[in-house]
Specification:
The strands form six sheets. The chain has a six-stranded parallel sheet, sandwiched between helices. It has a six-stranded parallel sheet with strand order 13-10-14-15-17-16, with helices on both faces. It contains 25 helices and 23 strands. By secondary structure, the chain is α/β, with parallel strands linked by helices. Helix content is 36%, strand content 13%. It has three domains: 2-357, Rossmann fold (3-Layer(aba) Sandwich); 376-585, Thiamin diphosphate (ThDP)-binding fold, Pyr/PP domains (Rossmann fold), CATH 3.40.50; 601-779, Rossmann fold (3-Layer(aba) Sandwich).
Length: 793
Amino acid sequence: MTVFPMTAPSDADEMALGRVDAWWRAANYLSVGQIYLLDNPLLREPLRAEHVKSRLVGHWGTVPGITLTYAHLNRVIMRNGLEVMLVTGPGHGAAALNAAAWLEGTYSELYPEVGQDEAGMAALFRQFSFPGGVPSHASPQVPGSIHEGGELGYSLAHATGAAFDNPGLIVACLIGDGEAETGPLAASWQAPRFLHPWRDGAVLPILHLNGYKIANPTVLSRIPSEQLAAYLRSQGWDPIEVADTAQVHRAYAAALDECLARIERIRRGTAHGAGRPMIVLRTPKGWTGPSHVDGHAVEGSWRSHQVPLTNVREDPARLDMLRQWLVSYRPEELFGTDGGPTPSLAAWRPGGERRMSANPRAHGQVQRDLRLPDPAAHSVAVTAPGEVTAQATSVLGDYLREALLRNESNANLLLFAPDEHASNRLDAAFDVTSRRWQLPTQDNDQYLSPTGRVVEVLSEHLCQGWLEGYLLTGRHGLFSTYEAFAHVVDSMVAQHAKWLLTAGSVPWRRPVPSLNYLLTSHVWRQDHNGASHQDPGFIDHILSKRPEVTRVYLPPDANTLVWVADHCLRTHGQVNVIVAGKQPAPQYLSAEKAAAHCAQGLGVWEWASTDGDGEADVVLACAGDVPTMETLAAVHVLAELAPDVRVRVVNVVDLTRLFTPGRHPHGLSDQDFTEIFTADQPVIFAFHGYPWLIHQLTYDRPNHDNLHVHGFRDRGSTTTPFDMCVLNDLDRFHLALAALERVPRLAARLGHLRQRILDRLAEHAECVRRTGDDLPAVRDWTWHSPHPDGANS
């Protein structure tokens, strides 16, 4: 591993490094002040207990490494005129980033109440980790940030996503050594295999080894340097180590200069065989803070992780230690009589949008409109419900192929999947693009190219993290995956949803394109892979998040799927989940009717209903493609067994329409809900997911006691498609029986009707176990009108 410094600096370099050191001391002073002080920000008077916050909340240990990195990046930005973004992985480092933004003037521009003077400094300090203020992690309120850091493991993935299709941009990524122990971060080292040398921006990882997590040493800090270097080189990186704390500014400056030179050679194509440059930075945890407290080492130990000095208000000796800590940065050299940075310090910063805290990409202010085709032009020709069979995701693939073509010139759309694009029937995209791939290829490879618009890597974490970084910097994308394995990124999407919600209240942040999921290979058609692939609970997870940003769509056929996907790709500031199957299935709605149905979100399918203009005896509701098919087949069963039963069929596409308006912006009024589902009739609801979700969405609706939901009950195995439904009581026979049991006037003949249904279920069970296939009458079922006159509109 290369180690710097190697040569003596020039006088000009010494002057620049002197300014780096002054800026670093100022940022550290401001960071300590945010953690501790309520008042007396510049110690103009003796420090007293009432000047200190009663609750000390913050993390000091990682701060000096962040401020050091920020200072040195500013030096090269100013010298070379670079555009740089900084992604900070260490969890609670917002104090350092707030300090940097305040020193650069960005904070005061965006928050005029926090000016660059003594009163503004006091406001900066008071609001930190304080009720009504800002968090200790890099939330959306922090200028220049796209990475929250509340959950560790995703900084390098976010940095990589931000670099995709951003030529000329350098994304510096500070990675904490605790974070480096996570699985997602370990996978993120694969970035060089997907980043194009000049069509994409450059990612510059800075692995910060300060030695400790919250209470334990970190793994990578204890690995010998040569072993760590060998590991990083095997992942495609060429590391430079900065470990000389006595000459840290010289060493860091030399390392950064070398990294930038290598990045330029890579962009020009003259860096043959070399890995991508990165820095391994070794500094003590809590550096420049208290050395020892009560005889225990703090600086360079886990004890500096959060608040090194506690009980400051109660203990005069601790209060004096805080004072000594603050004055060690020599604030009188850094801040003027008005409390603002001295003129020399204020001038030492990049200009305008070159400030990392003011980078417009980080604030969503650099966006290009997505050029999308007309969904109707990519629809299935449906003249009557059920007469046509198609694969919904294959039809969507044709639409996405055209979308990729329309956005080819502006590099504004990427499709992400964990090795499943073709499996999920979206392979029409490969007519116009390839999979992004920077490694060597072999003769039997397919669709691999350094510039592909489809990004496949067998890691849901990377797909999610790369897409988030891409979206947060203003571009558009879609993440398709097997439904059961979307759970791998449960915590990631929760963090992203929280970010979107908070960002929506920050006026200087522009809403970014939505995070769009396509969940396919879903629970009801995982009869071949078995129980390990059967879990529809991701939608439960999404709808437990704030309604301002969450949406779930269950299109019943191909034309509704294309309409929903088109709608989601046009939205901003949301998390959209679409669940759709990839197997051949009946098609019900023309393009025009699909558009109208999806725009409404749910509605009565009169062509499938038998209640006419009168009152329904029972409502058969459905949400999801397989539940819709089984519901329509149940209409046939009822028409055969009890033709006098009046049935209303309701299909739900937008699941959030079931909420009341006070609980979700898409919610139906009670009046509209009652007009659709009736005021007092039984509702048999066939649902794609776990049944209790529908009850959670509708618990405060009129007639909820008459709502009976059939859905996935975690009864699955390797079996036939229809048997999956039978095992979970979602099949046409159980749905029909549930309806018959709740029509009071059928009580006298219910026993006979039930037996006829049970006989069919027994026939099904015998056939499946004898032949390994579903009953021909089930397998070959097609829709036909239940109306006596045969009307099928």
